[in-house]
Structure formats: C-alpha cells, structure tokens
Amino acid sequence: MSPFQVGFDAERYIQLQSQHIAQRREQIGGKLYLEMGGKLFDDMHASRVLPGFTPDNKIRMLEAIRDELEIVVVVNAKDLQRQKVRADLGISYEDDALRLVDVFRDRGFLVENVVLTQFDENNAPAKEFRRRLEKLGLVVSRHRSIAGYPADTERIVSPQGFGRNQYVQTSRDLIVVTAPGPGSGKLATCLSQIYHEHQRGVNAGYAKFETFPIWNLPLDHPVNLAYEAATADLDDVNMIDPFHLATYGKQTVNYNRDVEVFPLLKVMLEKLLGQCPYQSPTDMGVNMVGKCISNDEACREAAKQEVVRRYYKALVEERRSDSEPLESERIALVMAKLGISKQYRPVVKPALSLAQQTNAPASAIELHDGTIITGKTSALLGCSAAMLLNALKYLAGIDPQVQLLAPSSIEPIQTLKTEHLGSLNPRLHTDEVLIALSVSASTGGPARAALDQLRNLRGCDVHTTTILGSVDEGIFRNLDIRVTCEPKYQVKRLYRKR
Length: 498
What we know:
This protein is an alpha/beta fold. Helix content is 45%, strand content 13%. The protein is globular and about 75 Å long.
C-alpha cells in the first residue's frame, strides 16, 4: 500500500461535527462551555494519524458557527514559570497563546479573554505575561489553585473554591475553551465559569471535545494506540469506559484521566446544575472523528508510523537531557502491542546502511511515490543538505550527476562560516543550501527547476543517523517534513547549545 493514501473524509467531518455540536447545544438549552481537548488549531498529530485530516480541520468546522461562539484561551501560570515549550512548533506556551489569538482573530473569531490558571502572586513570569496581555487589549482573569482539587467537592463548589476565581465575562452562548497544551486547567475553567453563571442566574452546561482516543474505535486500534504514544510523557493509557459499559452495556474507549475524574466531575455537575446530564465520560464528548474514517487501513498504517516517530523523538529527548528512558520504554510497549519495531519506518534502514558504508552521518527521505533518496556527509555538505538536493533533483527529473551548486559558490560560504562567524563545521546546513539554491535559481536552469519542487517534500518522512541541530530541525519543521533521528551526536562534546 502507498504510504500516502488518504484515510479521512475532512468535508464529512466538518458537516457531522458542526451538526453534533448544535444538537448538544439544544440538549443543554442554555450557555454551553465546550472544552477543546488537544489542539484546536495546528493539530499535527491528528493530521499524521488520520491522512486527510488537515491541521486546521477543527477551526474550519467551527467557522460554520463562528458568529455564535467566542473563544477563551487558557494558560497554566506554572507552565510560564517552567518556560514550557510546544515541541511541535518550538515556541513557548506564552508565545503560542499570542499566536493562537492572532490565528483565531484572523479567521474572524471573537477572542477577548485569557485565563491564567493556578495563578499566585509569587509567579513573576505569569505576572509579567498578564501585564503584557492587558497592554495588548486582552482581558485577563486569574484562577487560583484550590486546596483539595478535585476530591474536596464541598470546598471546590463554594465561595472558598470556584468563588475565589475571577469571572470571565463572555457575550455569546457557545464558549470554546482551548489552550496551547495539556494540563492547562481547561476543565476547571469550564466548571468555574458554570459556578459563576449559576450564581448569576444563567443556565450553563459543559461538554467536551476530545479528539483522541476515538471512542468508537477498538481499544487496540493503532490510531488509539498512537494517542497513548503521544501522551507517554503524561503516562496516559486508553481504557474501556466502565461507566458507559455499566449504564448502556456498550464498550467505548476513553482514557484514564477522564475515567478517574468522572465520579468527582459528576458530583460537581450535580452540585452546580442540580443534576448531572451525563452517565459516563463518553456521554460528555461530542467527537465525530471516528465516523469520518474513509480508509481504515490507511489510518492504521499512518498511526503505526506515528508510534515509531514518537519512539525516536522520546529517545532523542532522553539523550539530550541525559534522563531515564521512561517515556521511550512506555512507547516501546505500545510498539510491542502493534507488533512493530523501529525498523518499521522505511527510511531508517537506508540511512543506517549508508552511514555504515561511509563511516559518517547519513540521512534518507521517502518521497510521495515511495522512492527513498539518501544523502551522505561530504567535505562541502552535511548529510541532510545533500539529501534535500538529491531529492529535489529526482523530483525535477535532473540527472543525479548534475551539480546544482558549484563548489565555487559553496566555498565562500564556508569561508564566511569558519573564518568570520566562528563555526567549527564548514559544511553547509539545510538553510544555507536552500539560500544558495535560491540565489542560483534566479538565473533559471536546473536550480530553478529543483527549487520549484520544494513544495512536493511536504509530508515526507526523513531519518538521520545523528541528532539534528536546531537550525536543520527548524527547516524541516517549516517544510512540514517529518524527521526522526538516531539518539546519537555526530561529535562528542560536554557542552551543547540548547
């Protein structure tokens, strides 16, 4: 099977999902706080495991009801203190919160409020971020940590609990609550708002939009197991929803944190609403993703590839931080469930084989037609840069022996790097090669033809035999190329720039 088959019907998803949210709003009969689990925008994980699901699918779905909703962005103040970074984009949660506001506003959504959860006056980064947000014209609400949360429901649903949080003043009846990443406090924000709404005599309810795990796929489906791999750092596991099974006699899939907190959530909703409208964590959800899979085999294959990517990512992070292999071992268990190994990724073996032949770092890329192109380290080029040029030549139908960049054009760049910029590595990185190629392309010819093929590398898989530097890593991310690396450095050094 081709590695790039479409497996998800994005247009059907937009239609079904918007209809289902409308139905839930009718059931609630008042103001609905909709917690968005995962990424509302830039959902790269979903686009990788569900080929055909675009990173902006969720936001496109909400555009159908854009004038009826507003978005509240939630940021955990402790994540600001920890300087937490969104790994897939390489930016801080602080910057991502601002980026999300811009993205939502550019698409015509109403975004006026940011909630800082677990806020305290000793958190200097959070206080500075609050000042920055307010200068930008946003309304910032501070929510405090509540002693005994989530077990002590008497305290939580009281003036000493949610009552201490600042009320978020909204103007519409559908409030989408989203965040840069997990553990932000979205659920607590929704419940706090429902408490304050009822204190004001407003009928308000709660629902959850959690893309993964997909409730109507089997527990051991590769797409659901890929979610386990993606959240291995949180030690999440998928499980059969015991409350749904006991109430309806049907097996549905949820994950441990929602199952564990549901009894307390039910009690809190009963205290807030008088009765809980849900009998299980599955009941709370509005996710229709599972009903839009058009090619199950394509999604299974994509999910398996994602698990291996997550495994390599964990290995590299553990190597960089010299930490224990807890995350990679959890993902290895997921791989064992799927009956796959790291060699399941097609680009791994060719890269390793070339590295062994040349006794130097090597890389490999799988193109959309299944062709694998490799790149080796030379005196002029790093292996990733060489691989990119080789792939572009192949796509443009250029003879492999043709030099897109003459050595005479590369040498001045090397001189600049080593003699004036203090670089110890004279070889050209991917960014330098692409700039040099762009300059050469100005006169047309093979360089222009090669550069025109750059867009056809999007979504391709790459493997390198050494850990990438931040520059190459950023270039591949911007090109939407999915990279994995062996957990090894090209040169042994005690100090490394992070």
